[in-house]
Amino acid sequence: MKDNTNYVIHTEHVQSDQMKKITLEELYAFLRDPSVPSLIAQIADRYISLTKVPVGDAVMVYGFDGYTPDFIENMEAKYSLVAIVSGDGIYIKHMFFFYGFDRPKDSSFISNFNDYVAWFDSRTPGVMAFETYVKWLNVQATALYCKWYDTLSYSLESVKEKEFECAENARKIAVMSGSNDESMLKAPDLGYCILNNMDAFHILIGSTTLEKVFGKWTDEHTSTFQSSKALRMRTQEILRSGKCLTGECLRMADAIRTIDAQFVNVQFEHEGAVASGKLKLKTLQGAIVRTSIPYYASCFSTEKEGNMIREKMMGNKWADIPINFVQSVSFRGKAVYVHKDND
After folding, report:
1. pLDDT for 124-168, tens place per residue?
2. pTM for the whole thing?
3. Which of 11, 34, 98, 167 is the most buried (most CB within 10 A)?
């Protein structure tokens, strides 16, 4: 099923006075009525021609429109897929077709086409954009995915060689969220949709089901997710142990976690050398994970400042600065972290 598929359908000449003026409700009634195969009518300031093609358990509705009564005369019209009718639902495939005669009089609240789709979906029960139906299916698929992931088997033996990766991930979580974070126990966000438009189309026409599509997806992804889950479970074990972040690193992470700023003021001290400057908060958090502040020019507020601090603390502007050189961290003039000498 292609979104821009056009179908050539021969039509007979129809006089303008033969075109009945209909309401939107009458249009929906036509779409739902299996006994009426086609329609040529006027709605609002538009003239439309629609024809139905049964496909499986659904009906494809093709159509085109015009602004003058003679739009259909003496022509071989190109029809595009306007809607799909399946069961009690009408799924609008060609939203711009409906936008021509069904839009709010006051459209000031509509800043983009997504706003229009949201308004359209709320108008009539049982009528929605096809894209909205695809999103709804994916919500159901995501629920199935979470249940499937919870029962998915895994082996910690398979990730023994990735202990360093798990430990680093645990440190990242401890720095950003705290050691009590349990996000690794939950199914990770996929970042993509399980079902696509073609899957939704085949569900509507009855050639498949959501469960079958999801079952095929799990068959293709089980091995990948078993490996991923093993990594996440081992990361969670390390995080729970409370050993991934200790001492000054733990105190510093806790102190800066809730700061909402791009930069913080950091003072460095080591063997009599002292320096201070503005360091990116994310750089400092990353340094707690990696135990050192990298030499990148973008870490400090200016490259010059960063070079001066590295030269003073390390004798080399290309050197990383160990995290234990951080003596204090200040934000808005207030010290939020101060190193304890006896730790």
Report:
1. 899 999 999 999 999 999 999 999 999 999 999 999 999 999 999
2. 0.79
3. 98
Please list the residues that pair with 81 across neighbouring strands. 62
* Own/partner pairs, 9-17, CB within 8 angstroms, 24+ separation: 9/51, 9/62, 9/77, 9/79, 10/76, 11/40, 11/49, 11/72, 11/75, 11/77, 13/72, 13/73, 13/74, 14/40, 14/72, 14/73, 16/69, 16/70
At 73, list the tokens.
Answer: 């005369």
Residue with tokens 């990594």: 231
Q: Is 97 exposed, middle or buried (0-12, 13-18, 19+ CB in 10 A)?
A: buried
Residue extents of the structural domains in the chain: 6-125, 133-244, 249-338
CA distance 204 to 96: 22
Alpha carbon separation from 112 to 89, 91, 107, 117 (Å, rounded): 25, 20, 10, 9
Kindly tell me if the per-residue pLDDT of 258 is higher than 90: yes
